[in-house]
C-alpha cells in the first residue's frame, strides 16, 4: 500500500518510514504539518495516512476529519503519545489509534486492518466503523462492536455488556443504534441487543417479557411496544 506519514518530529517520521518499508509498503509522502499534507496529497494519492495528533497548525484529528470528507479518502491511522484523544479520533472513522513508541506488531495489525478498507468502500460509505471507545477506570480501551452482547442505558451512561466484562460509553443509546446497523435490535427504550445472541423469549407471572441472550447470565426486559419485532426477529424461537 501507499503510505503518507504526517508528524512534526523528523525522527518519528524516519522511524515510521523504516517500519513501513520493513512491512513491505511504500512511503509516498512524509510531511511535518497539515499544510504540507494537503500540498502532497494529490500527487501522492496514499491508501493510508499515518497522522500524528499534536502538530503545528491543524491537529491530526482535524486533518483526519477533513480527509474523511474527501471523495476517495485514504484510511487514517493516528500515531500519538497522548491516549486522551481517542474519543475524538475514532469520531473521524479512523482505522486505528497507535501510541508512541509504536510497536512493529501493532503497526502491522493496523495496516492490515486498513488494507481491508478499500478506497472504493470508504468513498461509498460501505465501510462500517466497528470500534467503540469504552472506559476502563480512568483509562480508555477500544473494543469491537461484534464482541458486545447488548447495550443498556442507565441514568448517565450506556453500558456495553460483553461475555467477560461490562464497560461504560460516552454515547447515547440512539447514537449506538445508528452506528450498529441491522446486527442489533432495540428491545426496550433502555436496551439494544445483538441479534446473533438472541436465544429465548420468556414471560413472567406479571405478564412482562424477558429475553435471554447467549453469553449473558441475566435476561433483558422486552417492552410491549417492541415485542412484535422481537418475535419476528426470533422466528420459531420465540
Describe what this molecule looks like in 3D.
This protein is of the alpha/beta class. 32% of the residues lie in helices and 30% in strands.
- Rg is 21 Å
Low-pLDDT runs: 118-128
Identify the strand order in the major beta sheet: 2-1-3-4-5
Give a count of the beta strands, DSSP E runs of length 2 or more. 15
Distance between the termini: 48 Å
Q: Mean pLDDT across all residues, rounded?
A: 86
Range of helix content: 25-40%
Q: What is the overall silhouette?
A: elongated
Strand content: 25-35%
Q: Determine the structural class based on helices, strands and strand pairing.
A: alpha/beta
Instruction: Give a quick account of the main beta sheet: strands, pairing sense, barrel closure.
Output: 5 strands, parallel
Total of helices: 8
Give, in order, the helices and strands: EHEHEHEHEHHEEEEEHEEEEEH
What is the fold's blueprint, element by element?
Elements: E1 2-6, H1 10-22, E2 26-31, H2 34-44, E3 48-51, H3 60-68, E4 75-80, H4 86-90, E5 96-99, H5 104-115, H6 119-124, E6 131-136, E7 139-144, E8 150-153, E9 158-161, E10 166-169, H7 173-180, E11 184-188, E12 191-194, E13 198-203, E14 209-213, E15 220-222, H8 224-234
Parallel strand pairs: 1-2, 1-3, 3-4, 4-5
Antiparallel strand pairs: 6-7, 8-9, 8-12, 9-10, 11-12, 13-14, 14-15
Amino acid at each position: 500500500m501507499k503510505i503518507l506519514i504526517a508528524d512534526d518530529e523528523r525522527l518519528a517520521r524516519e522511524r515510521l518510514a523504516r517500519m513501513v518499508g520493513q512491512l513491505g509498503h511504500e512511503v509516498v509522502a512524509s510531511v511535518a504539518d497539515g499544510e504540507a499534507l494537503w500540498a502532497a496529497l494529490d500527487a501522492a494519492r496514499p491508501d493510508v495516512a499515518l497522522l500524528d495528533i499534536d502538530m503545528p497548525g491543524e491537529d491530526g484529528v482535524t486533518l483526519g476529519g477533513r480527509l474523511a470528507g474527501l471523495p476517495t479518502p485514504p484510511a487514517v491511522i493516528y500515531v500519538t503519545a497522548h491516549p486522551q484523544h481517542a474519543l475524538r479520533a475514532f469520531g473521524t472513522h479512523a482505522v486505528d489509534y497507535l501510541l508512541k513508541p509504536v510497536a512493529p506488531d501493532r503497526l502491522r495489525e493496523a495496516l492490515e486492518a486498513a488494507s481491508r478498507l478499500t478506497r472504493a468502500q470508504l468513498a461509498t460509505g460501505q465501510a462500517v466503523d466497528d470500534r467503540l471507545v469504552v472506559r476502563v477506570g480512568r483509562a480508555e480501551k477500544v473494543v469491537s462492536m461484534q464482541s458486545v452482547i447488548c447495550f443498556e442505558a442507565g441514568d448517565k451512561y450506556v453500558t456495553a455488556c460483553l461475555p467477560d466484562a461490562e464497560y461504560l460509553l460516552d454515547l447515547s443509546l440512539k447514537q449506538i443504534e445508528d452506528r450498529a446497523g441491522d446486527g442489533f435490535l432495540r428491545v426496550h427504550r433502555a436496551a439494544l441487543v445483538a441479534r446473533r445472541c438472541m436465544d429465548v423469549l420468556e414471560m413472567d407471572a406479571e405478564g412482562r417479557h424477558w429475553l435471554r441472550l447467549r453469553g449473558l447470565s441475566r435476561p433483558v426486559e422486552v417492552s410491549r411496544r417492541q415485542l412484535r419485532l422481537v418475535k419476528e426477529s426470533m422466528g420459531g424461537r420465540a
